[in-house]
Amino acid sequence: MKRVLLIAAFAAAASAAHAQTAANPYTNNPAAVEEGRGLYNGTCTGCHGANGAAGEIGPGLALPGRSYAKRTDAEIFDAVKNGIPATVMPAHRTKLSDDQIWKVTAYVKGLRGTAIDAPSPGDVAAGEAVFWGKGGCGSCHMVKGRGSIIGPDLSNLAGLRKTNSIIDALTKEQHRVYGPGGAQPHYLVPLPVSPVVRVTTADGKTVRGLLRNEDSFSLQVMGMDEKLHLFDRAKVKVVYEPKGLMPTDYDKKLSKAEFDNLLAYLTRLGTPPAAEKPQVRMPGGPERD
Ligand code: HEC
Ligand code: HEC
Predict the structure, then answer these.
(1) pLDDT tens-digit profile of 141-187?
(2) Which numbered ligand comes closest to the C-alpha of 254?
(3) Which of the four pLDDT bands, split at 50, 70 and 90, describes residue 68?
(4) Where are the beta strands (DSSP E) in 109-251?
(5) Atom 40, ligand 1: which residue's CA is nearest?
(6) Which residue, 236, 209, 212, is CA-closest to 223?
(7) Residue 95 Cα distances to 76, 84, 98, 246, angstroms
């Protein structure tokens, strides 16, 4: 009896050790990831939310905060198969086959990944030069304290966006719309977008910029001069421009090499995640929060 237990314990330890190092056979396999999504929707959303968002009972599995208890494929596989001891996260080994669990794992990993997890090839230094030079990006964007405050700060772009979303931002007018093609996946931080306005005051002065706030009485505009302007709506003429401020023809403005190098630079823009809490819980020690 003792021996049987011992063997069982040994086998469990061996399979755990195997899971720690095992590679996911479905990494970069879109069909399997899609299957994983179906399995996830059928099995996990009762506790976790749809698309990796937080649910009623379980935490978000793919939020841009990027601090997860289970990171590697092997760790996620193990959590799904065997559950997380002393928590509500159940074991799924009787519900899902190993093969299915790898697919769900590939799906969860795919939700989490952003550009920085797979930076584009190219000459990063040359791309940085395009950013501040020919691209003129610094006249609207800031990176690590340098540049302009008109557009969004791009210091952590690659930590927040998928590579496709970055390409779309540079090449498609519809990059702010959810949907196939020009899509910003909705589980990532929404893109702050402000319409462009041209405001003419009674004395004939014109200010062009991004509309930050408006009500029936006033307008707040971030001007191209990087200053915030407050207007009394009754006293000005306002023209709303049909297009956003962000130029979306960089695939034409830049050569292919320039574009690729720029992408190599952009897909590496990230701030390191905040210091992690220790992962190991001592027996009888305080619960992880
Ligand atoms: C009965 C509710 C429930 C179900 C069903 C459930 N989970 Fe969980 N899950 C939880 C809870 C609660 C936690 C947080 C455990 C903790 O406190 O550490 C969790 C944690 C996790 C974690 C670790 C979170 C992290 O930070 O990395 C992963 C990964 C995970 N679940 C994946 C899944 C997947 C995939 C499925 C579906 C196959 C699933 N869960 C089904 C409740 C559930
Ligand atoms: C004239 C101002 C302007 C210039 C020049 C400009 N941008 Fe933008 N950009 C914006 C604004 C404003 C937004 C916010 C979204 C919108 O309005 O389209 C934006 C959005 C973006 C986004 C999406 C950000 C996100 O959070 O997803 C990326 C990426 C980006 N710009 C990169 C660049 C790069 C790289 C260049 C240079 C090649 C550049 N931009 C040049 C104004 C500009």
Answers:
(1) 999 999 999 999 999 999 888 887 888 889 887 665 544 333 445 44
(2) 2
(3) confident
(4) 142-143, 146-147, 196-201, 206-214, 218-223, 228-232, 236-240
(5) 44
(6) 209
(7) 16, 16, 10, 48
Task: Give the Å distance between the CA of 45 and the centre of ligand 1.
Answer: 10
CATH fourth-level superfamily of 117-191+247-266: Cytochrome c-like domain (1.10.760.10)
Q: Which ligand is nearest to the CA of 47?
A: 1
The ligand 1 atom at the shortest distance from the C-alpha of residue 39 is: 38
Architecture of domain 196-240: Roll (2.30)
> What are the tokens at 234?
């009754």
Classify domain 2-112 at the CATH topology level. Answer: Cytochrome Bc1 Complex; Chain D, domain 2 (1.10.760)
How are beta strands 142-143 and 206-214 bridged, if at all?
unpaired
Q: What is the pTM of this model?
A: 0.65
Is the CB of 48 within 6 Å of ligand 1?
A: yes
The answer to whether 108 and 46 are in contact (CB under 8 A) is: no
* Residue 68 beta carbon below 6 angstroms from any ligand 1 atom: yes
